[in-house]
Every structure is written in structure tokens, then in C-alpha cells.
Amino acid sequence: MKKYILAIDQGTSSTKTIIFDEQGQAAAKGCVDLKTDYFDNGFVEQNPEAIYQNVLDSVSECLKDFTQKGLNISDIISCGISNQRETFILWDENGKALAPAVVWACKRSIAVCTDLIEKGQNDFIKLKTGLLLDPYFSGTKLLWLLENDSELKQKVTQGEVYFGTVDCWLLYKLTNGTQFKTDYTNASRTLLFNIHTLDWDAEILEKWGLSNLNLPQPCPSSQDFGTINWSEILKLENTLSIPMTSLIGDSHAATFGEGCFEKGTAKVTLGTGSSIMMNIGDKAVLSQAGMLTTICWSTEDRVDYALEGAIVSCGSTIEWLKNELQLFSAPAETAAMATAINDNAGVYLIPAFSGLGAPHWQMSRKASIEGMTFGTTKNHIVRAALESIPYQIKDVVQAMEKDMQAALKSISVNGGMTQNQFVIHFLADLLGIPLNKQKNPDVSALGAAYLSGLKSGVYESISQLTEINKKQTEQVLVNVNNDLSTKGYQGWKEKIARF
């Protein structure tokens, strides 16, 4: 009998559901788009019930694909969830949402963060949570809600409000309110969780007036989170009642799916922005070089920590060149444009469209194109834009190595920009180590499946997962004769330092 795992990857714009087999191969897929409300004032929200229904629709589509291939749903052993991080939901004891889901990208709490920083709380928060006071994280947006809704604040004071990230909300709904739990990775992105004690921090909660907020039980990413009766929920003809055995934030799930199982291994997600996460082992190292410290992933007998650096503009820079400057009609053209010239001719694009993220945190900086002459062509500008992606990644990796006082062991890449051959070869040459690239593009779902399978017995060990990953990974090798990347990087550092 073959064994399968159902993995739900609940993202900001859609929910993907993938059923994986014992070899980490996708046997069936379903994907349903999710509506997000973007407002002029920088607010970003979703409908909590719509998120839940979106998951049900996606699971239904995936199961339909699975059965149409002649496969038997009774062979599905367990399920797991990876989810958009930092987005949170508030609800009452009946499971009714009390406010819209506030999405990770929402900027409503800028003034709250400024106020807390002025009160000297940034170091206090970093010491306990590994994070910085920033609107990106859940806690300050929660404070904004309570400042602007007196009725909701009263309910919190009276202990009537339940708080959870998307994983927690989905688990609560799928188990009819019997399971109120989250995992360490999602908890570690709220500004309310102590990454050293692995529990909610009573001092932060008291200081912020949240002591009576109902918070979920924090748990390892891989454990038994209760049984989901999919037959009843989805009105299936066949019986499908299986344990939920993993919950994990999507970027952490991708790190696990990429096989970052030991200290010094890292992954880079190259999407609209870029998330770089390095496994730093079983001890939390607080960064002195502009990184965040977070929980990487966990099982019932192991907790691994990570340093994380976020790059604001990656693929979005290329989209801007296409849409606003109309230098090309499709991003696929850019690799050929970049290689049509010998080098960048001293042209640099600093992609600070929304400031520069880690490790610089120059959030007031504006984007610029520097070093142009009358000899500059659109190919030079495109090449400068593409080069800015590896340069920013190198900045983050160097900062991580400085914090760890050790060199990077390996790095895996995923995301849409990995299709650009110029970018990934330039990155390999610049970092000086081969890049590991999974053949499976859905690494967040894969990570959730791996963690679920470890608990349910589909996979025996992390060592087995390492062997499975080797079979599904190709390498982008370093061209030792190419010194253009290192020469170009020196110019990049000079440009960054001028601000």
C-alpha cells in the first residue's frame, strides 16, 4: 500500500493543496485564488471566513484530482499546513471572527511602532523575541486594532477574545473549536512569543495590556494536532478522517522542504521580495548585523533556530522595469539582454523602491540608477537590475556569517526568479558555492508534508528526507573563472555606503 500526505499551503494570494507520496513526489494538486483587500491608506485585509472556505475549496479540488487518477483516499495517512506568516485573526468563543484578518503586508501600525521605539522598547523586544518593532509583525497591528476599537479592547480585557495566526484559525475551524494550538514558528512572528522559553512572554503581554488575551498553546511544528474529519467537512462519499500532524509558517516550511536540516545550511526564496533563512542550530543567536532571529523548525525532540534576512525588492524590480519603463515585454527576455553586453559598465540600480531591508534597514532611502553615461543602453539598466538581486543576497549572507563567525555550508534557491539563468549563475559565482535547486517548485507544501510524515510514520527520519531530497535536487555550479561578480560587488558596496 502506498502512503500519501495531504499538504495545505495557505498563501496570501491563493491556497495550494498537494498530495505527496513517500518519495516527496506530488500525486495531485489543487489551487484556488484568494481575495485580498488593499486600501489606499496602506491597510491590507482578508475575510477570515473566506480564508477558511478557500482552504476547503482547494482541498476539494486536490482530492478530486487524486481520485480521478484512480488513487484511493484511504491511502492518505496524515495532513499538514504551511501558512502565510504574521497575518492574524481575532474571534470569540463561538468561533466567530471579531475583525477582518490583518495581513502581514499591512502598514497600519507604523505610528504604534514609532511610539514603542521612542519608549525604548526595541531592545527589550529583540532580546525576548529575536524581532524588531516593525509593522510587519502581528503584535503592533493588534495594538492598533485595540487603540481604534474600544468595544474590542473591552472584550480583550474581559478575556473574551481568541488570537491566532492563520494556522491556528484553520485548525480551530477544522476541529470545531476543540484544538486551540499554533506552532513555534508562527508564534515566533507575533512579537508576543519568547523564543528562549518557547512560550508567550508574560512581561510583554502585561506591558502591552494583553494579559487576558486568549492565546493558543505553542507546540512543535511536527506533532499530533487532532483529527480532521474531511468526509464530514467536505461531504465526501468516502471516509477520510486523518490526523493533522504539522503546522508551520510558509518560509520556515520552505527551509525544511529545501533540506536545511543542519547548522550553516540556508535557503533563498526569490519571489517579489526575497527571504533568506539560515539554520543556526539549537541555540538562538541574537544578531548584531541587522538580521532577525526566529525559530527555524521543530519536532517533538528538536528545536532549530534561524537567522533571517528579508530583501524588499527582488522580482518586483524587474516588474517595474517592464511596466513603467517598458524596457522589455516579458521578464523571460532579461537574461539574454544581460548577457548581450560584457559587463554592467559601472551602472548600478539600487532597488530601494520601499527602502532597503536587511542588513541595511535604510527604510527612508529611495530607488536610484547610478553610473549612467550617454553610452548606457537599456541592456545595461536591465543587467544592473538583475545584478542587484545577487548583491543584496550577498549582503545578507555576509551579515549572517558575521553573526555566526562561520562560513555558509550550503544554500538552496527557490521561487520564480530562479528561472532566470543570469541571476542564479551570477549568484553562484558571487557566493562562491554551488546552489541547490529543487525540481519540485512547491517547497513550502513539501516542508509541511515532510514534517507531517515524520510524525505519522510515512518518513522514518530526517536522514531519510536528506536522501529523498538529493534525488530531487540539481546544482548550479560556480564558474571559478568569472570575476565579474566580485568586481561588480565592490562597486555595489561603495554605492550602498554613500547613503
Automatic annotation (TrEMBL):
Protein keywords: ATP-binding, Kinase, Nucleotide-binding, Transferase
Domain Carbohydrate kinase FGGY C-terminal: 267-452
Native organism: Flavobacterium flavipallidum
Keyword flag Membrane: no
Protein family (similarity comment): Belongs to the FGGY kinase family.
GO MF annotation: an example: glycerol kinase activity
Pfam families from the UniProt entry: FGGY_C, FGGY_N
Protein name: ATP:glycerol 3-phosphotransferase
InterPro entries: ATPase_NBD, Carb_kinase_FGGY, Carb_kinase_FGGY_CS, FGGY_C, FGGY_N
